[in-house]
User: Fold this.
Amino acid sequence: MENGANIGRINELALLERLFNEHLDGIFLIEYPSGNIIKLSDKISGNFTNVLKFDGTPYDEQINDLIDATVPDVDKDSIKHSMALSTIVDNLEKRKVYSVDFNSIDSNNNYVFRRILNEYLDEKKDIIVVLAENISSLVMGKTDPLTGGYNSTGFYNRVTEWLAANPGRKYRVHRYNIDRFRDINGVYGQNFGDKLLRDISVYMRRLDSDDSFSAHLNADHFVRFCADELMPAQECYDNFVESFSNYHISIPLKLHVGVYDLCEEGIDPFTMSYKALLALQTVKGDMHNKIAYYESGMLRREQEQLELLNEIDDALENDCFEVWFQPQVDYEKKQIFGAESLIRWRHPIKGLLSPMTFIPLLEKSNYISKVDKYLIEKVCKYMRRWIDALPDKKIQISVNLSRLDIIDSDFVNSLSQIVKSYGIPHSALHLEVTESAYMKDAELLITEVDKLRNQGFSVEIDDFGAGYSSLNTLKDMNVDKLKLDMKFLSGGHGDKKEKIIIAAVIDMSHTLGLPIIAEGVETKEQADMLLKFGCKQMQGFYFSKPLPVEEYEALLYGKTKLPNLK
Assistant:
């Protein structure tokens, strides 16, 4: 044993027993916070003996080099983030053992599935035990245990063999994602869902040949590799839909397809499949376009997004996120009554980022709740300042909540604590929940929304009218206000039918006793029409774009006015 403080606490015999009993590849230790790697005996270190240095080189530097040498390119950034010392420590604060699973490439150019387990040596939390396990034979092998077809390892190895045997020959990779599979599982049960996956696998294997083969990758994702001259993607799609048109299920069985066909030199099978997935993601949820082709630049954009994700913690710590406010007005009284708070990112190098650059990224990651809590605290801080400066003025701000916020069991308490710490009346903070959030986990969301309302918060349905189930949403949940989405209009003024529907929604809200505000108002004609129909509260670019806090404060303090409210 070399290096490290308090090495007398380390029981090498116990570690050796774990190595054999748990069939591990190797074990090493990390000192925290220094990041030094502690050398154990060669027998305990196992495979790490030859790939790690024990000369004081920090863990993060060494693990990044190891990932660069063994992990497919498309996975490197995410695995580096997952295995960074700071990420390990953050996760060990929440759980006893933190594990990372990933694909790597061995010396024979075969794919190997590995699991890295991290845990503290003892309660002092200054030494982390890192254990490595090759779980390929356990969970991967070459055959998918559910469907009997290839799994990812078997598929990638078969593609590698085909490429070696057919140099220069054109090919395609199709990624298939079954539409509404979550709903199928929910309605018919997991056993039925598993049977459907097996049936799809059987169907796909019927089309397999020496130049075309398929695999079940995970959940509702399948993949096919085929020589370019074989069945094109559209024919594959049509054949699938026709083959399953009479399947004993009331939900139509359809899919979306992503295609990679660039045949780039030196590309590995994992990256081919990943690029097909990137193409698929551009049409997922699209009711009209079912097939998309990978285009040059998609991977680079995905990598840029991963880089942004890796910068979010620093951005939060350094206050790079800003809160902007879009005024909400009473058009009849010609006055501002509140605002919607919106997040903006002032990047130290790239400047002020467009919300479309990072908000969809946040919504797809676990960072959305972290950023939302940051925004809520900032909003409460500003509200406290304005309440103190304007004691006779009613201050009302709305914030957007994601579905992940609401289903977090601790969120309601955390929100209440933040508001209470700034002495903000709960009713002054309005919480906007998009109608689409209720498409998943509807019962849980309804329960949590009721908890928020019981705490005194006002809850609004955001983007009302933008979805396909507006009336169902309204029927099933209790809310305090509707936000009518003016994107419903196909043009600037709306045709006769659209106006009738808008008038009916406004009239319905009045009948239900629900206040209503129209968002996305862009013209005087729209504002006048809404007022005529009985909707007085509005928000949109006709009145004001989102404003930095200084400009919104100037409006609150009466130093400036909105031109279309004069």
The chain has three domains: 7-139, 141-303, 311-560.
